[in-house]
Every structure is written in C-alpha cells, then in structure tokens.
Amino acid sequence: MKIKKIYFVFSLVLFLFSAVSCVDEPTYEVESVLDDYLQRFLNEGALRGKTFNLEKQGIILKFGDLDADVAGICYYEDPIRILIDQAYWDKISKSANAEDLRENLVFHELGHGLLDRRHINDYLPNGDWKSIMCGGTEKDNRSWNINFRSIRRSYYLDELFNPSTPTPYWATKVFDGSVTEMPIIEDDFTTSLNWPTGNTTKYSASIESGLYTFENKSTEGTFVVVNIPLQTSSDFYMESSFKIQDESVNTQCGLLFGNAESPVSVNYFSINNNKRMFVGHNHCFGWYTELLKAGLFAQNFNTIGLRKIGQDIYYYINGECVYCDQLSINKQGTIYGFEVAGSCTLVVDYFKVYSNTLRSASLVKTAVVEPITATPKAVWGNK
What we know:
This protein is 14% helix and 34% strand. With 383 residues, it is of the alpha+beta class. Residues 1-22 and 361-375 have low confidence and may be disordered.
C-alpha cells in the first residue's frame, strides 16, 4: 500500500504540550496530456451512472517506456497505477485515427483500474471484438485492432461501463435491399487499355489469357487504379475476382477507392491467404478491423466486392455480404482499383464498377500510384 504520510508538529510557546498528527493522503499523479482522456472517461462514466472519487481513491496515470509490443499496462496497486508507452503514443500522433487509438488505449487501461474489468476476447456476430477490453492472451492469432470509431464508439463505451450491453444493430446488419445499378466498367481482361502494363524497375504487368497479372517489385505497397468520372461521394458497387501469389499467407491485397491527389487518400478492403479480411484507410495507423472469414479460399481466386450507399459500406466475400461499416474519411476522388502488397503478385480475373447515377463513362489509362509510406499498416500494441 503506497501512502504518503505527512507529520505535523504543533508546539505551544509555553511548551505545555506537543501533538503529532498522521494524515493518509492518497496519491494523485496524472500527466497533463493524459488528464484530458481521464476527464473524458469520467464524463462518459457519469453519463452512464458511474462516478468515481479519485481525490479519495487516488490514481497514477503516466507515460513510461514499455516493451515493444505493449501499448499500456495497469498495475493493481493502491492507488491504481497506469503506464502508457510514450513511443507508441508518439508513433500514432500523425495518423488520421490518432484520437480514436489514444482514447481506446487510455479507456482500456482505466477499465482495468477503475472498473475492475479484465480482458474479454469474445466476438460480436459480425466478427468484431465484443469489447475494447480485448487484449492479453492472443486469440486466433489475431491483432487487437478494434473498430472504435463513428457509430461504433457509443456501443463500445456502453459496453465498457456495462458488460451486459445488448448486441448493437450494426453487428448483424447486411444489405438486403434492392438497387438499380448500371455498369461503368466491366473489364474481363480479354482486351484492355485501362491498366498499366510492361516491365519497369517497380513492377511487371501483363494481360494474357483473360488474366491481368501485376507483380510488385517494390517492398512497399502499390495502388493500381483506373480513373473514372464517378465521384467516390456517389453510391457505387465495385467487385473483382483475384488471386494473391505470395509465400506468406499474411500478405494483404484488395480493393480501394479514393483520391489520387497528393497525399493519396484511399479506403481499402483487403484479404490474405490466411482467410482474413481487413478494412481501413491508408492515412490511419493499422487497419480498422481484422476479421476471420472461413468463406475465403486460400491460395485461390476469391470474389470480393463493396457497395457504398450514403455513408454505409457493405463488404462481400464470394457472393455473401459479410460486414457493414461507415465511412469516417472519404476525400472525394475518382480512383478505383487494387492495393498490391510489396514484393507480391496479384492475378486478376475481372474488375467491375457499377453506379446508380452514371450510365457510362470514358476511361482514362492510368499509371501506378506510387507507394504510400507516411502511415504504413501496423498492428496495435497489446493492452
């Protein structure tokens, strides 16, 4: 038990007596940068009927130098002591989702310390983590990246303060409506002038036997796109069938849409040969979420698609709608295409984009967008 003891000695002038008083004063040490997140936690708790007397309880919330794979840690002492890894905090500072990551991390550790929550590594019906209290012992060889953003934030905060919170509607939401969509591009690669071909120092690409093969010679990821006069703010459906050729089962390739102006800004939907799907944005640290999908075929062709309706995005794997998300970053643009991982080959059977606003479009042959290195994909630190 860590208690500061302060002794006061009062002496009367006449030295008639002296008295010694012992007062237990709880330790309250919170770094100024982290205090904002502590206050947010207290406010969110108050909204949900949870209050804390930290002047009485005490708390230590500071930065520290933690192990390379640890973002934060909570020590069950008196008072509770929480350390946040300074290097991780600084590393994510320039990411578009920095505030989401920081809030998630601090709230997770405060969940341990002030709510006495332990790790819970359960899944929601759509495969998302059930709680921001996920962490600790690895499950299914899966990263701790959690889609703590947009409308999802409210549920995760509700669950943090009340583990009995019902399953959110978005965890079971799929597209079950009807929509009339016209083809903008339907490329089966029998003949095509829409994609880069040839052999350069960065890539080798060819169209043969109805397949488009793109070998990325760079160690950095590359975006291979077409420009379509269809703004990404519009509603659309994009689909492709492709195969990833790489020795590693963890190599990610997939679809993307966004803006080609510097800095390139794209939302992506990728898969790997380990039957995982990933959703994210290239300006964010790591992906929003990693999901296990048994319906994916390892080392073979998979058909993946995404449908944008308003701010909702529906994700498809081999004909099944498997996930729904909401756009939080969508810099309006006109590029659609593929993300190809570094030192990887992507073999594409077809690519198509449908729209319910345009009937046709003139395609422009494009060059490969240079690799984005400012905010690479990364795995969140353990908590």
